[in-house]
Amino acid sequence: MQSLTFNKKIIEDIKEVIVSSRQKVAYEVNNTMLLAYWNVGKIIVENEQNGNIKAKYGKQVMKELSKELRKILGSGFSVSNLFNMRRFYITYPKFQTLSGKLSWSHYCELLSIENIDERNFYEKECINSNWSVREIKRQIDTSLFERLLLSEGKSNKEKVYALSKEGQTLNVPEDILKEPYVFEFLNLKEPKPILEKDLERKLVKHM
């Protein structure tokens, strides 16, 4: 029998398998959650009557809906999050236009931007530059879009954009699985230590 030879190639091969698997799991969980919340938004919109969701009556309905859903499905269905799901569907009526590279937390930040051009700008930059949620918050708070619009000349715009990238942090697949929204989606208590078998069972159930 040939003995196992311990070398760096074995480590790299195993690492490649695990990293690739984590990326696939993160992508599937993220896409599943986005689709679920998009469909929740669709159900809410399709059951509205003459736009009453904007009135006091509509807000009261959302409060009652939130209360019942939290009883049945656990956390993750606050009134504000339900309104985000509604806006999510209205803003992106075609699910195919959504990017699997962005998490629900990314989209919640984007949904807070009323100006379509500005929102599209941050969305594209988020995807192209692989911004973390913290990074997109920083860019919005420092008004990158407005600063670029006010910059005169190509060289000035390039300088502003270069400065915007300082301190940038990038996402890794594990970050998506650690997001509070993911714990809520799987109905897991975030502070509670999670056994690997429990997480695996929850992931499979929601895929």
Task: Describe the structure using short key phrases.
207 residues, mainly alpha, 11 helices, 0% strand
Q: What does this entry look like structurally?
A:
- The protein has 207 residues and is mainly alpha-helical.
- The protein is 68% helix and 0% strand.
- It has eleven helices and no strands.
- The protein has helices spanning 8-46, 56-73, 79-91, 104-111, 116-129, 133-141, 144-150, 154-164, 173-177, 180-185, 196-206.
- Helix 1 (8-46) packs across helix 3 (79-91) and helix 7 packs antiparallel against helix 8.
- 21% of the residues are buried.
- The model has no long low-confidence stretch (mean pLDDT 78).
In short, what is this structure?
The chain is mainly alpha-helical and 207 residues long. It is built from 11 helices and no strands.
Biggest β-sheet strands, sense, barrel? none
Please tell me the overall pLDDT. Answer: 78
Q: How many β-strands, per DSSP?
A: 0
* Helical segment count: 11
| Share of helical residues | 55-70%
**Element order: H for helix, E for strand:** HHHHHHHHHHH
Radius of gyration based on Cα positions: 21 Å
Question: Which percent range describes the beta-strand content?
Answer: under 5%
The N- to C-terminal Cα distance equals 41 Å
Briefly note the structural class of the backbone.
mainly alpha
Structural shape: flat
Question: Low-confidence segments, ≥5 residues, pLDDT <50?
Answer: none
